[in-house]
Structure prediction request, 210 residues.
Amino acid sequence: MPQTAAEPEPTQDAAQSPEPQAIPAPGPEVLAAVEAILTSVDRPISSARIAEPIGPVLGIEVGGPQVEAAIAALNESYDTEGRAFRIEPVSGGYRLMTRPEHAPVIAAMHRARASTRLSRPALETLAIIAYRQPVTRAELEAIRGVACGEVLRSLLDRKLIKIAGRAEELGRPMLYGTTPQFLDAFGLANIKDLPKPEELADRLEQNQAE
Prediction:
């Protein structure tokens, strides 16, 4: 009678695969350190960069995952306490930001800085670049119907746009795109967070009605 081959016994590695280790809850000293760093910076900062000074100062091992766990815990605390701010992902990092519902109050406080705001032509040009990037100057001017040279220089000076390459067409014109500073200025985590055009149209209609 033919014998069947014996089933191979599982190896030790297969029988005892290591389980992923859970990240321990951050202690109060880590929470305080993460919060202190975020309140001291005016630009988005990555979790790894936040972790760099914390470990040596506190004498414990702290990495990006621990910082992200601390951020989640801090946000939970802010939500429970009804604080006016949260830690939000912005442009590849994290930043302490006020909640959207407080925008009218903040806007009223900063009206004195109106001279530093973007002009309407600059906003129109920036919006086209944000939604159509990469885009050439000729395409911008065809959409707006006016020359955009001065506006483009102004946006480049403010570092809201950058030269993103050259188009594969006659003359190899420059292509324009937005920058991380653009995401930072408008509180966006990435370009996909831009509002849909129909949402912008609804907001414009509401503003005109008011």
